[in-house]
Request: fold
Amino acid sequence: MPAKPSAADLKILAELERKVLWLSSWTIHHANHLRESSDGLKVGGHQASSASLAAIMTALYFHVLRPQDRVAVKPHASPNFHAIQYLLGKQTREKLEAFRGYKGAQSYPSRTKDTDDVDFSTGSVGLGVAQTLFSSLVQDYVRAHFPSKRPEGRMVALVGDAEMDEGNIFEAMLEGWKHGLRNCWWVIDYNRQSLDAVIREGLWARYETMFKNFGWDVVIVKYGSLQEAAFKEPGGEALRNWIDSCPNQLYSALTFQGGAAWRKRLMNDLGDQGPVTRLIDKRSDDELARLMGNLGGHDLPSLLEAFDTAAMNDRPTCFICYTIKGSGLALAGHKDNHAGMMTPAQMDQLRETMHIRAGHEWDKFEGLATPPQELQAFLDRVPFATKEPRRYQAPHVDVPRALAVTIQPTMSTQMGFGQILNELGRGDSDFVKRIVTTSPDVTVSTNLGPWVNRRNLFAREKMADTFKSERIASTFNWEFAPTGQHLELGIAENNLFIALSALGLSHSINGERLFPIGTLYDPFIARGLDALNYACYQEARFILVATPSGITLAGEGGAHQSIGTPLIGMAQDGLAAFEPAYVDELAAILAWSFDYIQKGGEAEPSERNWLRDETGGSVYLRLSTRPVEQIKRTVTPELRQGIIDGAYWMRKPGPNCQVVVAYTGAVAPEAIESIGLMGEDRRDVGLLAVTSADRLNAGWTAAQRARERGLVNARAHIERLMADVPPHAAIVTVCDAHPATLGWLGAIDGHRTRALGVEHFGQTGSIGDLYRHYGIDANAIVAAAETIAPGRPIRHLKALP
Ligand SMILES: Cc1ncc(C[n+]2csc(CCOP(=O)(O)OP(=O)(O)O)c2C)c(N)n1
Ligand SMILES: [Mg+2]
Reply:
């Protein structure tokens, strides 16, 4: 437990709280009024929200937190965070002056874009909150597998009360309960205001019951120490009862109006010509306003007491801290204050109240009563302000260059995935020990079962498989053990992505590299898409295996079949998307991925493919359950490189080529069949196997950009491949997904192109039925070729139904 602060330290903390309020307000004011705004947008949301959390963050950062603790600061409190880091010497004035500007301090705390040691990015509300929960589970996982002398950290989220509406938070709580969550604090800024509204009465009681149900401790920080003292005065009990029954809207409105309004209302409701009247009368308007505004969340002694007490154990704890949105500012309590902005006149007034001279607004200690040396000495002692880096580095882990898999004559990429992992599961290398798999209740149906059989499920405590001990035959014998390497999740896909986000930052948060592999059905990426985006934005490193996909999931119908996911793969920054057709391709891609996800930092694009491979990223593999006849071949280094770079010629177009068929993924058999069907009637047909539309497209864009910058010889991988295609040839592209995935190939050299794919919701049927129905079967490819690459009729083209 942190030592209780001395009276002198408490005084300094109170001064720092004012300073945080000032600096964050000034940062926002500066961005709004003192700098040109190009988009006409002013800083909304931040001013009132930051003020709401000034005391809570002061208590945490300057007293409670230790360097190993990690925090998700709610998005609109970013100015507070930047101000605190500024006071601790970790943020520059230039960045604060450029708040929301180019290369300035970010509007919402950003792990990757900010330079002042943000632990977890926030912005899309709810996600940072869940991130702390999963980070705590990952910390337990890492400690069970890799014992460490480093102290355990606490994962802390500063949560808005309206943020609690986000469903992903509840999904996470349930998962936390299952896994025995600890070392996690959620501090709710209970200001009873959201963006638009004042929240419903009594919400705190719902939270309290809910958190307790999920096994959390709940600490309600409702009254400040001034209020507690007043309650002890004669008449104090009546005041407490009045506060307890006061509706949120009225409390906010009176706060906004100030001392005289409080007096009038309290006298009307409580005036008794006796003790209560005396309690009110003996205070000036200002003192009365201060008393009524002294809610627990604005009162350092109450907050410190609550935090310090909870810090004595590792229980997951929710703090419900009563606050007033905009506290300390002219906007305090007003229901419209979310987008509220202090006027220059109001800022001047605040500056004067803070004893800050004009022109000295950025001075760290300006206006504080304690001498600067003492303040600096205090800051130097703050536990959180360690000089040691709080982010760790993990050494590169050697990974195999090739992965073993027995290729059967006919198999699906999903089967191949299961077998590769099963083979890996036999191993005992450092690399294999660092693989961690996770899946939202689709472990078996995504083919992770054999791997889990070998490596077990993770739990902090051992738990036997009852079916096994009862000797009931089962394909799977899964035991929970601290050494288990599969993190079992419930169905909520949001949790999968946040879990991957937490696992994928382990090298930085825990100093231990993990190789997280998450599996789910491809269509359900959409369910967790914002969380996936969040994980990528934070540069978490993981491999996402999405299977089954497309209308190869033929029997399952429209809501289970994915159409747009390859486009997500192309558009999602930080995620390299692949869609292999063959298992040898998959093995090459996976082996490459284990290396790729370890890379990081700034690097120039490679001149070979114009991709930023040296900076690394996460990987998305779109796989299928469709059994496909495999090709007997050796994967030469050249072929391997083509697979990784995104495409290779399965059949190189001849000099008189009239048609090229370019395909990706599970439609390979149709593409190959179509080549056979048109071979007699179209010359030198080429067949392009695309393994990553995403990487081809990214390389092409980057090479064009490089040429525009004067590097005239820059050529992307796909440009070199297309150089083999004569200008008069036409291209037919085909994929089990939206046609835009490959439709752009014609734009590279201006070839006529027809893009086949799926544009409408599917229905149930066989793969053959559906491929025919949506026009991605061999016949449809041939018909398209005949139409855009004129010549004699293609004899094998059957009449289309
Ligand atoms: C997913 C998502 N939806 C909407 C928003 C826009 N938004 C930002 S803050 C906010 C209200 C937050 O209220 P609360 O959490 O109570 O914080 P306070 O404003 O009280 O500080 C909304 C709707 C967002 N940032 N993220
Ligand atoms: Mg709120």
